[in-house]
Amino acid sequence: MRKMLFLATTILAAALSASANAEQKEVTVWSWFVQSTMNKSIAAFEKAHPDVKVKYTYYNYSPEYITALKAAAASGSLPDVIGLQPGSLTQQYRENLEAVNERAAKQWGDKWAEKIFPVNRKQMLMGNPKGDENYYIIPQESQVLCIWYNRKVFEKLNLSAPKTYDELKAAAKALTDNGYIPMFQGAADGWQNENVFLMLANQFSPGIVDKAQAGETPWTAPELVEAMKAWKGLFDDGIFQQGALGAHAYPTGAQLFAQGRVGMMALGSWWMQESKFPPPLSEFVQNMDGFDFFYLPPVKDGNPASPPVGGIDIGYGLTKNGGKNPEAWTFLAELTNGVGLQEALNDLNDLPAFEGYSPKGDITDHVKEMSARFMADLPKAENQRFASPAVAEALDNALAGVAAGSIEPEAALATVQAATEKALAAK
Amino acid sequence: MRAGSTIAKVGRRSASRASRLYLFVLPATLLFVVFIAYPILWVAGQSLYVGTSAGAVFAGLANYRTVLGDPTFWTVVRNMFLWGVITIPVQMLIGGLLAYFIERHTHALRGFFRTMFFLPVVTSVSVISLVWVQIYAPYYGIAQEYLKRVGIVMATSPIGDPETAIYALIIVNIWQWTGFSMLMYIAGIANLPSEVLDAARIDGAKGWRLAVHVIVPMLAPATKSLLLLGVIGTLQTFPIVHLMTGGGPNRASEVFGTFIFKQSFVLGDTGSGAALSVIVLVIALTLSLIQIAALGARLTPAARQHP
């Protein structure tokens, strides 16, 4: 009798446990997105969907995240949702991703894509095979590239945000003479070099890099050669710090900038999040009091200042595995255009990819004003992303070679042209 | 009849014993097949295909031709050669000298010195890279702070100049791994038979003569081990380069590890990444076999004593 009772209790307990497990659904997510902010987004999601548990795995982007994705894709063990950048990263995993068009239309209505800023929408399709109008990435956040400057240091040295190249050079000299790093460039990192080059190239001819990577304009076009020469000039004219080619923007440059030892730095709207990091914060970072931004002034007479350049900061994709888990899409939708996004914005992580959002909570007027300026510029931003990683890699090498003086601008751009032709032929 | 039956029984027992003995090597064999042989064969297979996993097309040796025709490959070969011929002897020399002086001339502080010189070996490469990037930085860097006092101003960072980047990285590697060479030599010195050293001293050998003509030859097994490990370590170089220069500027400091990583994971060209991996495997295997043939397989003091 006792045995029977024990058996019945065990079966009941197992059944209850199974039922509890069945009720608690799980979504798995991998990304390089800041863990503290993601935790806030997940908490907001789980509050709104108490029956779903989100398991987030954070990776450093390189090499950890991209190697983990590769291994998981090869073994068919990708999580439900993965963090993506538009263009090359999304395209590498396109075969492992669900097209989200139908789910998005059902969730947000047929015109959902129109609520996404144009530059982001363009980037969502980057690198798709001809005729494939499916979206494999939903953007969560956007960014606008700019030159941040330390306004307290500028004020101390009687400088103002430069409006001409001469003013930029004069500001760099004044900063250097007073023991500051003029404009910190982490030129050992390809991404920061690409960003500055995009600012320059779009100043000479808006949209020209997009045309060049699409094969519509040669990379050796005069405007791009001029932009490459201007890039070299930033090193030769003392605007970037000495030894920039051996420096990294993160963590070195960002730390020095936050500490007030740097005058200017080419970053983007994401820099605002520094003010939300755990204390102690420097007087410059506290409420972003020490910082403001400008766009790169004309590097040649007759040029306009650089237009805003930007696009998707981070997006997410629904994997084939995630396609089998209905809760995975629910989470992805809330993360990119719902409670999850709002939490990320409140943390000043970056700008939204969908219209109709703004950061809320404990934010100063100065930050609100800068955020509003970025938001006003976002709809007219030029594209910052590359469809082919081989083209981006060739441009990175060309920029480093020209900066080091080991290759001439024309020859360097010819290598980018060759890489573009090869990539387009392979497509 | 009885004798024949006995022989048959012994034969069966022997065969059964042999088959039981084979069972003991089964776990190691299984681990080798699953974690070493299969991945190698899989990578070798991948090197014959172009395209993505879903749309891969058999391309024969096309990936090998592409890789060998890429100028970056030959930059990598040059860098790896420099890396090997500089780091291995320099690490051995400094490590050997440290070991000799620590073992022979320190007493109370022996443990302290051993630990201090070995510390970089067990320090995270990420930390080492961050610190050395700061050391090399001109204008605001650590080295610059000291050089300033003697009137030297660094114009560029050694890792930011294509001409010097690889040498700057080699210095970091030597700094990190010399402690390992030191440890190997300390083990070698500790195992030296005292009667041989005493005999040498009685014969009048001391100081430099004792070190060069007695101790150094007797440390040959440790030297051979370091040579073999150095060559393999050279071919496996990745984190320092990835973290400090990313193989740049303009691929000037690219090594096999970073080149394979870029091809496979950044550019998504798994085929050429796999071809490169196979080439590195063949190089490593060839160099190891040459070394074993030339220097002998007896690499450790223990092996020397118990051939």
Give structural notes.
Chain A: It holds the Pfam family SBP_bac_1. Chain A: InterPro entries: Bact_solute-bd_prot1 (IPR050490), SBP (IPR006059). The complex is a heterodimer of chains A (about 425) and B (about 300). Chain A contains 18 helices and 10 strands. In chain A, helix 9 crosses helix 11 (about 220-235), helix 14 runs parallel beside helix 15 and helix 17 packs antiparallel against helix 18. In chain A, about 50% of the residues lie in helices and about 15% in strands. Chain B starts with a helix and ends with a helix. Mean pLDDT of chain B is about 90; it is low at about 300-305. A two-stranded antiparallel sheet of chain B has the order 1-2. At the A-B interface, helix 3, helix 4, helix 12 and helix 17 of A face helix 5 and helix 12 of B.
The gyration radius over C-alpha positions of chain A equals 24 Å
Proportion of residues in extended strands of chain A: 5-15%
What's the rounded overall pLDDT mean of chain B? 88
Structural class of chain B: mainly alpha
Unreliable segments of 5+ consecutive residues of chain B? 301-307
Number of strands of chain B: 2
Number of strands of chain A: 10
Domains of chain B (count): 2
Instruction: Using the alpha-carbon principal axes, give the shape of chain B.
Output: flat
Molecular shape of chain A = globular
Q: Report the biggest beta sheet of chain B as strand number plus sense, adding barrel if it closes.
A: 2 strands, antiparallel
Question: What structural keywords apply?
Answer:
heterodimer, A: about 425 residues, alpha/beta, D-Maltodextrin-Binding Protein, domain 2, 2 domains, about 50% helix, B: about 300 residues, mainly alpha, 2 strands, about 75% helix, disordered C terminus
